[in-house]
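User: Structure with S-adenosylmethionine, tokens only please.
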Amino acid sequence: MRIDVVSIFPEYLAPLKLSLLGRAQEDGLLQLDVHDLRDFAFDRHRTVDDTPYGGGAGMVMKPEPWGLALEAVLASLEAAERRPTLIVPSPAGEVFTQALAYELAEEPTLTFACGRYEGIDERVLEWAGERFRVRPVSLGDYVLNGGEVAVMAMVEAIGRLLPGVVGNPESLVEESHSDGLLEYPVYTKPSSWRGHDVPEVLLSGNHGLIARWRREQQLRRTAGRRPELLVGADASGFGREERAVLAELGYDVVDGRLERH
Ligand code: SAM
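Assistant:
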């Protein structure tokens, strides 16, 4: 996969060169190109912002540098990518989820446009919509200073799903949000630490029992920490034992979906 990021702080994205994603780039699994928006601003101060029409606080990112930067990215993408995806991080976008990470990991290229100040002049999104598939995406319901931290989180979540990036692909299957539930608690040696013991079942060597215990823990943890993930969930994947645990936790199956009783 090829990823292009446009930002006024290219150095902000430096951590993406480390660890698993750094190795993925060395191995040719991921190409990450970070572009400085100011390289497309040609006045003496390389200005990228101006006051908002209609008044109000703060500054707005000017359209001209964005148009030139995105044109340059488009020109450098393979001709085969007719309408690449442009992610515009924004607290006013759809919320980023593991499901969206999986969807975006299928794309051959992704371009990210990091806003700053009060955001990017809306006409850039209109113009880009004729050339890219534009998706405003939010990291969550809070406001960051700029899009860079959001891009780092999204690129890491997407990048680790690319084939070959995570050593053991099994670890992607069981983790939180892969099947709508949170992951079960995990333990390592020693089996007893400061008076806290690893649950007996994990030492039993009985893989069937361990799998059942882990599944139950997933249900209990999800109900306790993120009950909204269960309400309305498709119940077809839950067997008799799981439904019994869910009933104990306060969830019934109604018309194939989970409801709180
Ligand atoms: N005035 C904007 C609003 O209220 O929607 C917020 C602008 S914010 C200070 C500056 C930039 O940070 C945004 O353009 C966006 O790129 C990024 N940003 C802030 N919060 C974000 C979030 N929750 N998810 C993704 N990007 C965010």
